[in-house]
Amino acid sequence: MSIAASRRQFLVHAGCGALSGAAFLTGLGRFGLIQALAQSSAPTDYKALVCVFLFGGNDANNVVIPYTSYADYDRVRGGSDIAISQADLLLINPPSTGGLTFGFHPSFRDGFVSGTAMSPSLNDLWAQQKMAAVCNVGPLIRPLTRADYRAGLARPYQLFSHADQQNLWQTSYASLPRQTGWGGLVADRTEGISGTGQFPVIASMSGVTIFSTGQNARPLVLAPAPTALNATLKLLKTDDRDALLRALTADGDAAMPALIQGAAQITSQALAASNLLTDDPVVRTFPNTSLGNQLKQVAKLISKAPQLGLTRQIFFTSLGGFDTHTNQGNIAGQQANLLRQVSQAVGTFYNAMVDLGVSNKVTTFTASDFSRTFVPGGGGTGTDHAWGAHQFVIGDAVRGGDFYGTYPDLTLAGGVDTDSGSGARGRWIPTTSVDQYAATLADWYGLAISDRALVFPNLAQFSPAVLPFMRAPALAIASTSS
Predict the structure, then answer these.
(1) CATH number of domain containing 163
(2) Do residues 312 and 259 touch, judged by C-beta distance below 8 A?
(3) How confident is the model at residue 7 (pLDDT cuts 50, 70, 90)?
(4) Could you give the maximum distance between any two Cα atoms of the chain, in Å?
(5) Residue 317, strand partner residues
(6) Dist. CA 33–CA 362, nearest whole Å
(7) Residues of 434-454 as b/e, b for ≥16 C-beta within 10 angstroms?
(8) Calpha distance 181→165 (Å, rounded)
(9) What whole-number distance in Å separates Cα of residue 71 and Cα of residue 407?
């Protein structure tokens, strides 16, 4: 085979290989910016962020429900096949709500049982003050009133579109779609505190994502469990990897020298990273579900952070199927089953962090395209695409057991509803921006205040810039869970 043919074959393999595919899409066209991570005297503290993205638009109206004023919920959803009965709610009393009682979806009570051990459910983590809710959060260009929205002012790009809102959530930029995500940009700006530079800081267990893509960051894309950790990065279809790389870097194909050199550099770094994963660490038993297997792989990588010289890590995991419409149900519907998977997988992951002694250093958080309309549609159409939603943040560094942001007024055609008239369906205008939500997590992770505008260009439009749901590092409390 000629050198030129070898090069072109490599590009095909690079596009198909899990790690190379991510690096290719991240670095192609700007590979000149990709450099070895800074060799620095990194601090000894460790922190990690773990995103759990719920693809499809999780119906937040059925996740956090008013109990004290359940009539506001019941008059809209009562009698429908998506309603959650008041008797089934898991009651909570967030201190910030002035004595009001709310209820979680009943699936939040489900923990994962393995042998005689049971991991905490999301409801357990709330009761232990390890989980907080951030209410009515979504993409915003600036703070927006109902009057502003009705006048067509400062509306985010392509509202109610799945793909576009997924981009806005992952980039924290509501004006237009971007090609870099806030996770990747945070990794770029914190290179100097991330470790030795021998292994990438950011990784996805859910394919190539905008969230993980920075200007310089080189994201890993790993297969979830049960694939062994040291087998996830087998990239090339040849045993003679070094020979192929020599062919790629040789002179003789003037048509694409820069492209080939860049791809070779990326893959050389990928192979170096692969060589550092020499074993498959043992962690506790996880639920054998899509999200459980992704979080199990994250736990393995976190367990290897000291060996890899990492003091910062960022992870992306996901669960699809939340485009539920009519298939929500109370206990056995699609949303209930998906939320049960989230509760079991996240609770098990929390206990795995306790096992590793880093439960105060690893923060898990949720995100989703959007919420769903409060009013079910006629003709069997069910809930439709909406806007502001409730998200959850989990870990010992979280000021848990409370609401942050503002729970929406559930008044149709008023309050924070985008709609008007008798056909109003209840699409809540967010009162907290993705910028504030993400910047709070990035601030805890170690993003400098001077770098905030580089990662979150619209953040200056919002006050406060960060919310108080994260503890200062020195105040992160020790775990009490077993």
Answers:
(1) 3.40.720
(2) no
(3) very low
(4) 75
(5) 52
(6) 29
(7) bbbbbbbbbbbbbbeeebbee
(8) 13
(9) 16
β-sheet bridge partners, residue 204: 221, 316
| Domain count within the chain | 1
For 392-407, what is the HEC assignment?
Answer: EEECCCECCCCEEECC
* Encoded tokens for 11: 């590009």
User: How many CB atoms within 10 Å of residue 101?
Assistant: 15
How does pLDDT run across 348-379, given as a tens digit for each residue? Answer: 999 999 999 999 999 999 999 999 999 988 66
Asked, for residue 256, whether it belongs to a domain, the answer is no
Distance CA(418)–CA(160), nearest Å, equals 12
- The pLDDT value recorded for residue 270 is 59
Residue 401 counted as domain residue: yes
The answer on pLDDT for 478 being more than 50 is no
9 band by pLDDT with thresholds 50, 70 and 90? very low
Backbone dihedral region for residue 15 (phi beyond 0: left; psi -120 to 50: alpha; all else: beta): alpha
- Decide: 377 and 460 in contact? Cβ < 8 Å: no
- Round the average pLDDT of the chain to a whole number and report it: 84
Does residue 206 lie within any of the structural domains?
yes
> Is pLDDT larger for residue 467 or for residue 1?
467
Domain coverage including residue 40: 35-233+277-475
In a domain, 260, yes or no: no
CA–CA dist 86, 74 (Å, integer):
9
Q: Enumerate residues 6+ apart whose C-beta is below 8 A from 241.
A: 271
